[in-house]
Amino acid sequence: MIELMREKYLGTVSVKNNINTVITNIRPIFDSIKEHTESISNFQGIYESCTFSLNNKDYHLVRISPGSPIIDIIKLMAPLSSSITLVGIAGSLNTGTLIGDVIFPREAMHHNSLGKSIAFTHRNGEGIICQTDGLVQTKVFYESLRDTGIDFVDMESYYIASYAHQYGIRSKVVSIVSDLPLEIPFYLAPIVSKFDMEKILYYLKVE
Which end of the chain has fewer surrounding CB within 10 Å, N or C? Predict the structure, then answer.
C-alpha cells in the first residue's frame, strides 16, 4: 500500500534505502537546488520530485504545498530515509537577522507547547524555531514568542523534528528569512528573489 501511495504522491516507487530526503514548499528553492547539484532523475506525481547527488551522497527532493501536507511526505519517505531536511522560509523575531539571510536553527518548538523543544540532530545551528498555525497572527502573539526565547517562526519545522524523532532518523531545517513579523510582516515584506545557495548546500551536507 505504501508503495502505491509513493507512486501517487511522488510519481515513483523507486526510492533508494537510506536516501537523504529534502522537502521544500518554495518553487525557486526547488529549482535552484536542482540547478546547483548533479541531477539524476525527475518525477511527477501529486508533487514534483527529483533525485540528485551532492558530495557523493544521493538525495530525494520533493516540492510540496505549505503546511500540513509535509506530514504525508514524511510518513512516505521516513522508512527509507537516513535524514530529512526542510528547506523553506521563516520569519525572524531576532533583530540581528535580515530578510534574505539563511538560518540553521538548533531546535524546534510548537506554539501550543512552548518550553518543550526537540533538538535537530546536527551538531551546529543557532536559535529556536517555533511552528505556528499560519501567517495571520497578531503582534502580541509574536512578542509573546520572542519573550519566551523564540528566534524564528514557520509552519512546518516542528513536524520535521517530531516525526524524524519518532522514526529515529536525522533531521534539520534550513530556512530563508522571508519577513520580520515584529517590524515587517509577511504581507508587507519584499519577495526574496536572491538567496545564498552556497550556504544552503553547505547546510544540506552538515550531519
Answer: N
> φ, ψ for residue 160 (rounded to 5)?
-60, -50
Q: Look-up: residue for cell 523575531?
A: 93
- pTM over 0.85, yes/no: yes
Provide the CATH number for the domain around residue 200.
3.40.50.1580
Per residue in 145-203, pLDDT tens? 999 999 999 999 999 999 999 999 999 999 999 999 999 988 889 989 889 999 999 99
> 140-169 burial, b for 16+ CB within 10 Å, e for fewer?
eebeebbeeebbbbbbbbbbbbbbbeeeeb
* Enclosing domain of residue 114: 2-205
Using CA atoms, how far apart are residues 79 and 166, in angstroms rounded to an integer? 11
User: In the numeric block, which cell numbers belong to residue 22?
Assistant: 529534502
Alpha-carbon span 72 to 49, nearest angstrom: 14
Are 60 and 49 spatial neighbours (Cβ–Cβ below 8 Å)? yes
Identify the CA nearest to 87 among candidates 39, 133, 148, 20. 20
Residue type, 93: L
Q: How far apart are CA 59 and CA 83, in angstroms?
A: 9
Q: Please, is 56 exposed, middle or buried when counting C-beta atoms within 10 Å of its C-beta (0-12, 13-18, 19+)?
A: exposed
Find the largest Cα–Cα distance for the chain: 48
Query: How many domains does one find in the chain?
Result: 1
